[in-house]
Amino acid sequence: MSKLSVKTKQVRFPVAPDLYGLFFEDINRSVDGGLYPEMLRNRSFEDSIPPKRCTVSQGGVKFTTPLGWSDQFNGGEGLARWMKGFPPTAIPAWYTQDADMRLDAGDTLNDKRLVSLRVFLSPGGSLKNIGYQGMAFKTGAKYSFYMFAKAADRAAPVTISIHADDGTILDKKDLVVNPGAYGRYDCGFVAPKDATKGYLTITSLEASELCIGFTSLMPADTYKGHGMRCDLMEILDGINAKFLRFPGGCIVEGFTKETAMRFSNTIGPVWERPSHMLMWHYRTTNGLGFHEYLQICEDLDLEPMYVINCGMTCQGRAMELFESEEIDDFLREAFDAIEYAIGATDTPMGRKRAAAGHPAPFKMSYIEIGNENYGPEYNKRYQYFYDALKKRYPSIKYISNTHTEKDGLSTEIADEHFYNTSHFFMENIHMYDGYDRKGPDIFVGEYAVNTGEDSATLRGALAEAMFLMGIEHNQDIVKLTAYAPPF
After folding, report:
1. Backbone angles phi, psi at 260, to 5 degrees
2. Are strands 397-400 and 413-420 parallel, antiparallel or unpaired?
3. Cα-flanking dihedrals φ and ψ of residue 90, to 5°?
4. d(CA 198, CA 129)
5. Gap between the Cα atoms of 163 and 167, Å rounded
6. Domains (ranges, CATH) in the chain?
7. Where is the Alpha-L-arabinofuranosidase 1 catalytic domain (predicted)?
8. 447: part of which helix (H) or strand (E)?
């Protein structure tokens, strides 16, 4: 029989209070259609637009950046495997019956939207959105729909409907879309039965021409009323984590200058937030933005850890460097983000936070300067950002992507990432036993068994647990950890 001895008088070091945290990044379509429960895919009609300065080839199958990195595009559908089982369409997720549709770049909802959707409908013609491989409706659940739209020349009566897998109408509402300027049109639905492959339609009662600028369909019931999906938030809450690292990850870096993450693009009304192409094969409308991440931290009692771009795109994907004034732009973005989080309401960003419904400050505990960046160019930018941020916000803890202390730079916390086989994690249970205790604290910011036959298996999970046991024996230096990705 096994025997476990606990020696309470032999205290080695204090337990790291924030040892276990969460890391969340928009990957695997985990945000739109996931934690952020938008049910309409391509709600801004922009998915089929290639990233700026990128060239599309092979009939839209792939795009290539100016410096030569390529990824799947498939007309905006993303990975080819995501398209299986659905008929092709020129505008991802949207289909017509007895109607024609096209993108219109000249008559958009606002200057942040790249296009609108112009639809020419015959009497009884319809526009359909299939969501993320179908929409799941639950018996008795309520759903909220809105769209910004206008009719071309005269009022257009339309019916908005949600449908079950077999096409049965679950609920419908009639609206009249007026001509002139864009207007917002809202309605709600109640599902009388379950569906797993449902969809939404907009049907015209007579011949009409509509211009639609933005759409949304979401569950009316969200976590604490703050817009996130209840079941997934409850899972995250049950982990009892201490911090949240956001919004990435590689998406912070981007694969071109235009796709690098900027705080300013992720606040304000969602229909006024620019969309952009993510590293992970699809476009986001930034509905889960900076304010929403801070609200998640507050709702789950997590310390915020915000990752900022320091003037570099992803070094593993034909890096582009920002220089001079461009770098200062990113520094200003970082200052603005922090002020938005913790600034008083008489500051410019604090006023914007209050206008968004949160007059009281949020928290901002950690800032990570860059993501998985390294080398001389990173060191230069890291120290520049660290000095400026530390001077203005000395109470925040700052994280480096590498052991910059070895190059003589100010380093409070060093971030280490491990993606490997189960054998790697089992063999490295004692990795931190010999680390220099005079160096910076360690943050294992991303780790997972994601290669080899043990990925997403019990054996892989046990290997990760063994690695964490080694970390728990070294909490005097390893102060933070986060598995990646949670979804």
Report:
1. -70, 145
2. parallel
3. -70, -25
4. 9
5. 5
6. 20-29+222-483 (3.20.20.80), 92-219 (2.60.120.260)
7. 236-437
8. strand 441-449
The token pair that represents 402 in the structure block: 């590498």
Query: Tokens at residue 479, please?
Result: 């102060």
Q: What is the CA radius of gyration of the chain?
A: 24
Tokens 């060191």 belong to 379
Q: What single string gives the DSSP state of each residue in 382-428?
A: HHHHHHHHHHH-TTSEEEESS-GGGGT---SEEEEEEEE-HHHHHHT
What would the pLDDT profile of 327-367 be if each residue is shown by its tens digit?
999 999 999 999 999 999 999 999 999 999 999 999 999 99
pLDDT tens sequence across 26-74: 999 999 999 999 999 999 999 999 999 999 999 999 999 999 999 999 9
Note every long-range contact of 268-272, with CB atoms under 8 Å and residues 24 or more positions apart, other chains counting. 268/352, 268/356, 270/216, 271/44, 271/109, 271/110, 271/112, 271/113, 271/148, 271/213, 271/214, 272/110, 272/112
CA neighbor of 344 nearest in space, from 334, 358, 365: 358
What is the dihedral sign for C-alpha 419, 424, 429, 435?
Answer: negative
